[in-house]
Amino acid sequence: MFKKILVPVDLAHIEAIQRALSTSADLARHYGAEVCYMAVTTSTPGTVARTPEEYEHKLEAFASRQEEVHGQKTSSRCINSPDPTADLDGLILKSIEAVGADLVVMATHLPRHLDAVMPSHGDRIASHTDVSVFLVRPA
User: Where would I find the UspA domain in this sequence (predicted)?
Assistant: First the structure.
């Protein structure tokens, strides 16, 4: 059913997306799918890496560790953006097409009243793509 699963990640907040990571690994194992971990970084130094190249290497290492732990094929896609927060939705949508994903698994927050005015990234992705989007909420 699914051949490639795109999982947006933020290496600075891996602990916050553990449920989404486990869900994507379980789905990949069940369907024999590849998981592509996608991240967006900036050119300015951050808490995870000083350069986009260093961030990309850390993302590749993260994907390799996930492959070893969960046993399914993985890949990574690192994108440099001047404003990751503003550009995130568009970059996820472009990545879906670029990697040929047929499922997106994303961590999300619990619903809140502000979502009526400012929808979450997951809401926007689901409403702007024809692939399935699985939003994983915190426990």
Answer: 1-137
